[in-house]
Amino acid sequence: MHHGNRTASGQVYRQGELTAAHRTLPFGTRVRVTNLSNHRSVVVTITDRGPFVRGRIIDLSRRAARELGILKAGTARVRVVVLKAPRGAAARPRVRDGRR
User: Fold this and answer.
1) CA distance 49 to 9
2) Residues 9, 19: contact at Cβ < 8 Å?
3) 41 near 68, Cβ under 8 Å?
4) DSSP state, 2?
5) Which residue among 7, 20, 72, 79 has its CA within the 20 to 30 Å range from the CA of 99?
6) Read out DSSP for 39-72?
7) Closest of 46, 44, 68, 59 to residue 98, by C-alpha
């Protein structure tokens, strides 16, 4: 759907990469996303803004959703943990549970 289009960070979105969109985290931030129902986790890089749907905290690339086992369902309860913020960004650890 968005494959090949530019993200808010200026990068080209590739559905086969481990990327995500978040409303406030700086571009380049690496986060671990864990599916709370099956405990699978994946590390993604924030490259875009969103999601803009109430109650959702992160939008995952197709590959990240597949690796978490939520591709068919479309959404799941997840935990997001900041692993590494880019230089100059606040480096405080943040954990957030919510819907993907």
Assistant:
1) 8
2) no
3) yes
4) -
5) 7
6) --EEEEEEEE----STTB--EE-HHHHHHHT-TT
7) 59
d(CA 67, CA 48): 19
Q: What's the burial of 21, exposed, middle or buried (CB within 10 Å: 0-12/13-18/19+)?
A: buried
User: 71: Cβ–Cβ under 8 A, 6 or more apart, which residues?
Assistant: 62, 65
Please name the amino acid found at residue 95. Answer: V
14-61 confidence digits (pLDDT tens): 889 999 999 999 999 999 999 999 999 999 999 999 999 999 999 999
More confident residue, 57 or 95: 57
Q: Does residue 33 contact residue 68 with C-beta atoms inside 8 Å? A: yes
